[in-house]
From TrEMBL:
This is Endo-1,4-beta-mannosidase. SUPFAM superfamilies: (Trans)glycosidases. Gene3D superfamilies: Glycosidases.
């Protein structure tokens, strides 16, 4: 069987327009877009992730604005002028603490975006129209349903659209199917890390690992990792690597790719002088996982200080500042992209930690949790981060062999890990 993993890592950025942030879609200036893309190409990026705002494209359920769809196509074409591929997110949704739901699903027209038949019909219409706008453009990498749409499904969102696990899966299957029928390239969906860490979240790890063409993870160390371990501590600079390994545990196929679609250096929890080192260590560690398909850094440009009411963390995440000057993080990103894009792909770690998925476990996987702590200790001990095996799959000899796992370690809360070799034969491979 041919591996799904492309031999060359992708390196890209999430495109945040230098002028006007994502409100730039209101009065698109293609000259400014080209200026931004030229700077991004100078960072050795090979792709950008694009965020048209849902409520501007579809302000009424029956109105998909031709001018807005044309704008998206023109931005994709502008990226091609600089040899940049483009992934387009659809249901925006949510960006940098702001929600952009269209008026036809809010207040007087309040509808659950995951279950209401009227809302679903509107979402399907949008995906079809967006897919039509993207077809025939050779630099389209693919389409993602939306940015961290799972944050609408549960607390801590202040006005959630509550659903259960079955409804989450039904929504994904339905809309990914429409996207696959309509749009070219990779069809994916993106969740923030509550999927992996929070039992309240109805979008589950298996949904991330089974739905869509690649598994997508977003890594942010302001989730408690940097506060607990320090900005350059192992629990911070290895957080992206850990999420990639954790996600792969749910894969039925050993060679299903994982895309690190968002990762950034938040200077609210990482010292500004350490940001470039944080970036380098994060990228190098993540690139050491053979199933990684690409790294898309958040984000291209800083949010201008003239833009008000953003959380403080959002203003300094760019690789390029608001005046167009490449920051130390941008220079380091470019160096790493040049070095690692064509480097030989690593062999898998032969060691795996067993995660007990037969009971609620997501809090244990979060920074500070017993499983996370055990993984970090093992990574520091061995130099490489271990793989993760689900307890429900630890007797699947064929899958273990395909993943290159030779030794498994069981995690006991507060007691470190105990090891056993993978001997072959289901019973023989279980933990003592």
């Amino acid at each position: 069987m041919t591996s799904q993993i492309h031999p060359a890592l992708r390196f890209g950025v999430n495109y945040t327009p230098r002028s006007g942030w994502f409100h730039a879609w209101l009065d698109l200036d293609l000259d400014e877009v080209r200026r931004d893309f030229e700077a991004i190409a100078g960072l050795e990026a090979d792709h950008v992730r694009l965020f048209p705002l849902w409520h501007l494209v579809q302000p009424n359920r029956g109105l998909l604005r031709p001018a807005a769809l044309a704008d998206i196509g023109e931005v994709v074409d502008a990226a091609a002028e600089f040899d940049l591929d483009v992934n387009v997110d659809a249901l925006q949704g949510h960006l940098s603490s702001f929600d952009f739901l269209p008026a036809w699903v809010t207040t007087w027209h309040e509808r659950n975006i995951f279950t209401d038949p009227v809302a679903l019909a509107g979402e399907e219409a949008y995906l079809r129209a967006l897919g039509e706008a993207l077809r025939g453009r050779p630099n389209v990498m693919g389409l993602t349903l939306g940015n961290e749409v799972n944050q609408f499904a549960a607390r801590p969102h202040p006005h959630p659209h509550p659903i259960d696990e079955a409804q989450a899966e039904e929504w994904l299957v339905r809309l990914l199917g429409v996207a696959r029928e309509s749009a070219p390239g990779l069809i994916t969906h993106a969740a923030y890390d509550a999927t992996w860490y929070d039992e309240r979240q109805p979008f589950l790890p298996r949904h991330a690992a089974e739905q869509g063409d690649e598994t997508v993870v977003h890594s942010w160390v302001f989730n408690g990792a940097a506060q607990r371990y320090g900005g350059l501590g192992a629990g911070s600079v290895r957080h992206g690597e850990y999420l990639v390994q954790l996600a792969a545990a749910w894969h039925a196929l050993a060679d299903r790719p994982v895309w690190l679609q968002e990762v950034g250096a938040p200077v609210t929890v990482v010292d500004r002088d350490d940001a470039a080192d944080f970036l380098e260590q994060t990228v190098r560690r993540a690139a050491d996982v053979p199933v990684l398909s690409g790294i898309t850094w958040w984000c291209s440009h800083d949010v201008a200080r003239s833009m008000l009411d953003f959380p403080p963390v959002e203003y300094d995440l760019g690789l390029i500042d608001e005046d167009g000057v490449v920051k130390p993080t941008g220079r380091r990103f470019a160096e790493l992209a040049r070095e690692l894009r064509g480097a030989p792909r690593p062999a898998p770690s032969p060691v795996a930690l067993v995660l007990d998925d037969t009971r609620p476990h997501r809090a244990e996987c979060a920074p500070g949790g017993a499983f996370f702590e055990a993984w970090v200790r093992a990574a520091e001990r061995d130099g490489r981060g271990p793989q993760v095996v689900l307890a429900s799959r630890q007797a699947d000899d064929a899958l273990l062999a395909a993943r290159g796992i030779e030794r498994m370690e069981r995690v006991d809360a507060g007691a470190g890990a105990t090891a056993a070799p993978v001997l072959g034969g289901g019973a023989a491979a279980t933990m003592p």
